[in-house]
């Protein structure tokens, strides 16, 4: 049975996934006080790549993900691609899980074992993934109003503490820091949206992938740009780069007439919502891609073992908070470049050639 | 601790398999193999064996680093 999700619900899922857990981290910190320029450049560079993901899904219209992949790439290559992306989604889910547990450990539960928090989150994500993308998308539509409200309030309050002089002088260190910041942002979180390619089984119309991916990404990236820039203007470039959770620290400084304080906890709510959805989506994508890779039409029976493997993987892949922060803010990761850009580019070129050939053959017969 | 955890996985696996309405052998095999991988990872983490994380794309990363000093940091 195909899981068909309305465009608006899918878009809400894309927004929350892109915001995810990462907006609270020191995104684009290498750009220094030119962070807003790095964000703008990263958005401009990410849009064509995300349009490429949308185009690939658009070429599969009328078929489920599994059928579409098999039609375009053939049975065995499509299975190999699915297995590769299953691994990528599984690893990303584990990274998000460690980000969540590290944040909770640092902020509120320092003596609780990380495995306990990871298990609680994973069980919740397991339930959500078993319910499928339709339920996750409906949940996103409900939660997105809260996320918008929280981020808007956080931004509006941050503006009261902002020192615009922190952005000056513009381009003082030249273009290289901006480029490094841009690459940081493309790596995590902008092009992580490639995981969503594997989540949606089918779309309503041929142009639905564009209507889902591009506006969803645009909304999330603009919010991230505003929040990160405002946080930098509150903390200064140096403190923004050295803090693990600069947005959290910046919002903790909000003090409106000694009445509105401790607003950092409302940002944590948004972080919790985004983090949970990202883990659930990664789990869903990993299970779905694994099922396609192994040749099964149903993926739900694989969700439990994949989810259970993410808990130890979160402890194995990253051992401490410093490593989690390093991975979230690194400039270029070889596997990320491969899965987010190189492989999709090869797949897109192959898909265009094959679809064009198919059309030519059907026209001649 | 390890025995307890493995036992936990066995219980979860047995319960899930019991709950399935039908059990085609291919599905059962795929399920058991994936669960076995999860158990292996758990044993690695709990037993504190210092097994490095495999990085098959390290070659590409080294190449990027050579091309552009500071890349991959």
Give me some keywords for this one.
heterodimer, A: mainly alpha, Amino acid/polyamine transporter I, 14 helices, B: 73 residues, mainly alpha, 3 helices, elongated
Provide an overview of this structure.
The complex is a heterodimer of chains A (365) and B (73). Helix content of chain A is 72%, strand content 0%. Chain A has helices at 7-19, 35-59, 65-73, 75-107, 114-131, 133-159, 176-187, 208-235, 237-242, 246-252, 264-294, 303-317, 321-328, 334-364. In chain A, helix 1 packs across helix 11 (264-294), helix 2 (35-59) packs parallel to helix 14 (334-364) and helix 4 crosses helix 5 (114-131). Chain A is globular, with a radius of gyration of 20 Å. The model of chain A has no long low-confidence stretch (mean pLDDT 90). With 73 residues, chain B is an all-alpha fold. Chain B has one domain (2-67). Chain B is built from 3 helices and no strands. In chain B, helix 1 (2-19) runs antiparallel to helix 2. The longest helix of chain B has 22 residues, at 25-46. The radius of gyration of chain B is 19 Å and the shape is elongated. The mean pLDDT of chain B is 84. The chains are: A mainly alpha (365), B mainly alpha (73). At the A-B interface, helix 12 and helix 14 of A face helix 1, helix 2 and helix 3 of B.
Mean pLDDT of chain A: 90
Q: At the third CATH level, what is the topology name of chain A?
A: Amino acid/polyamine transporter I
Q: Could you tell me which chain pair has the largest interface and how many residues each side has?
A: A-B, 25 and 30 residues
Principal-axis shape of chain B equals: elongated
Blueprint (SSEs and pairs):
The complex is a heterodimer of chains A (365) and B (73).
Chain A: H1 7-19, H2 35-59, H3 65-73, H4 75-107, H5 114-131, H6 133-159, H7 176-187, H8 208-235, H9 237-242, H10 246-252, H11 264-294, H12 303-317, H13 321-328, H14 334-364
Chain B: H1 2-19, H2 25-46, H3 58-67
Helix pairs in contact in B: 1-2
